[in-house]
Amino acid sequence: MLRIENLHATVAEKPILNGVSLSVPAGEVHAIMGPNGSGKSTLAYVLAGRPGYEVTEGSASFDGHDLIAMEPFERAAAGLFLGFQYPVEIPGVSYLQFLRESLNAQRRARGEAELSGAEFIKLARSQAALLGMDAEMLKRPVNVGFSGGEKKRAEMVQMGIMDPRFAILDETDSGLDIDALKAVGAGINSIMRKPDKGVLLITHYQRLLDYVRPDKVHVLQAGRIVRSGGPELAQELEREGYVEAAA
Amino acid sequence: MTAPFPTRKQEEWRYADLDALQPVWEQLGEPERIAVLPGQSLEQVWLPSDDPVQVRRVNVRLGAGASFRLFALNSAEQYGRIELEVDLADGANFEFFAANIGTGLSTNEIVSNVRHLEPNASSRQAVRSVLNGKATGTYLGKIEVARDAQKTDAEQSVKAMLLDRGATANAKPELEIFADDVKCAHGATVGELDPNQLFYLGSRGLPPADARALLLEGFVMGLWDSASEPDAICEAAREALRKVLA
How far apart are CA B220 and CA A55, in angstroms? Predict the structure, then answer.
């Protein structure tokens, strides 16, 4: 479903990704782990199309479509979702308006009927409930005054509403206490653990992987995948650190 | 009798489009007068008309304990000017929320002079400008606090968003204070749309034009939060933003 081949990318002309190859078939969850500065977030941003992240070599395709040639909004309409490590605040714009317009833009692009106000509210309430978030918070401006944990939960509510086919979750577990971690883990499983969906889970720590069991674990170091394995690799990393495990 | 035609040397006309003003100057005559009697309150919404040149000059007098809340949209195609002289008596409250929205070669300006003549009065002004093309948007806001106007509480906030290198925003909050126990706050910012916000909206499926429109709506619409009937001005502002982004 997601196929990355020999991907090289630069940020401000500095090489960050140096030949990443990775394939995530439908129905699988892959975790990417690695030390700070290894290129994890860059990989997420490149896949979502953030301006300033230049692909210099290699390719990334989603269901056979060339991802790199698409604008960010086209990737979203194609079913790709990025859970941000640092969700962005937008004063003056309510969460409900933002999400309804976004979802309907995606639906228009796919030739589907738009949701009415009432249909959308119902959907938003059910997804907020799934993540244990007070739906009243969605009346507030996007992420303004939200705690770190609330922002991450809200990202997962967004994912539930968008119902993407593939999610890239960039350190969704950072800043979460144990209860929020459990809720977010359960949310990821319920929204994304389906035979026709895939997940790329980017994380520093093994603890989220206790709740969302990955099918494969990859270690990213200096912009390259240096090791891949099953879920047991995450425990080994946790025990021995990245340097030992990569050696 | 009409007053002498203004010149750019006069601070309050410094950024005006005097060529556009010339043909309408004779018809302007004396400023409109609004008086709010002691203890009374008034709310008004000023919407733009279709005229390419729109100049509105108003003198407002607020009696003791009176309050006046004014919402205005300034988005003339050529030249729009809202000019306010406001006198506040003891305990009066004046609130002004306005937007300049312009594109092309338009000039839209708001010039206010709020005089706290007696103690305990409060004033709050917020102006937001959205400017594209070679448009100019201006806010010249003067606050005068008289010698015995103790416990004055005055606030000015002006923010502008420039969508094109050719657009110009002028902001000049000005304070003249003769009392010593007062609270006066002012702030001014000029900026562009935030690329992080644009990418965030894009990543959720909003095409760039829709993302820009949503951000600008958020920037402006907060002005009308406290209006009792905001629908007309919200719709007019949306329409003006659509034109600016077209």
Answer: 37
Query: Which structure tokens are listed for A33?
Result: 């782990």
In sequence order, what are the residues at sequence separation of 6 or more whose Cβ sits closer than 8 angstroms to the Cβ of residue A227? A218, A219, A233, A245, A246
User: What string of pLDDT tens digits covers the 247 residues of chain A?
Assistant: 999 999 999 999 999 999 999 999 999 999 999 988 999 999 999 999 999 999 999 999 999 999 999 999 999 999 999 999 999 999 889 999 999 999 999 999 999 999 999 999 999 999 999 999 999 999 999 999 999 999 999 999 999 999 999 999 999 998 899 989 999 999 999 999 999 999 999 998 888 999 999 999 999 999 999 999 999 998 888 888 876 655 5
Contact B170, B136 (CB under 8 A): yes
CA distances from B192 to A102, B93, B99, B164, B245 (A): 22, 33, 16, 9, 14
Biggest CA-to-CA distance, chain B: 60
Q: What is the chain A residue with the closest CA to B199?
A: A50
Residue B161, φ and ψ in degrees, nearest 5: -120, 120
In chain B, residues with a C-beta closer than 8 Å to the C-beta of A93 are 214-215, 217-218
The string of DSSP codes covering B35-72 is EE-TT-EEEEEE---S-SEEEEEEEEEE-TT-EEEEEE
Q: What is the ipTM of this complex?
A: 0.96
With 0-12 / 13-18 / 19 or more C-beta atoms within 10 angstroms meaning exposed / middle / buried, residue A223 is buried
CB A204 within 8 A of CB A242: no
Specify whether the CB–CB gap between A131 and A184 falls below 8 A.
yes
**Yes or no, beta carbons of A109 and B205 under 8 Å apart:** yes
Residue B213 is encoded by which pair of tokens?
């429109």
Q: Do A92 and B204 touch (CB under 8 A)?
A: no
pTM for the model stands at 0.88
Tell me which chain B residues have a C-beta less than 8 angstroms from the C-beta of A51.
195, 199
**Do A20 and A220 contact (CB within 8 A), yes or no?**
yes
| Interface size, chain A vs chain B, as Cβ–Cβ contacts under 8 Å | 76
A176 lies within 8 A of chain B by CB: no
Helices (H), chain A: 40-48, 72-77, 95-109, 117-130, 148-162, 178-192, 232-246
Which of B48, B9, B7, B2 has its CA nearest to residue B25? B2
Q: Do A76 and B221 touch (CB under 8 A)?
A: no
Q: Report CA Rg, chain B.
A: 18
Q: What are phi and psi of B152, to 5 degrees?
A: -65, 140
Nearest C-alpha neighbor of B125 from the set B89, B96, B98: B96
Cα-based distances in Å from A157 to A167, A168, A240: 13, 14, 34
Closest by alpha carbon to B226, among B97, B83, B46? B97
Using DSSP's 3-state secondary structure scheme, residue B223 falls into helix
Of A50, A94, A114, A161, which to mutate for an interface test with B (greatest number of B Cβ within 10 Å)? A50
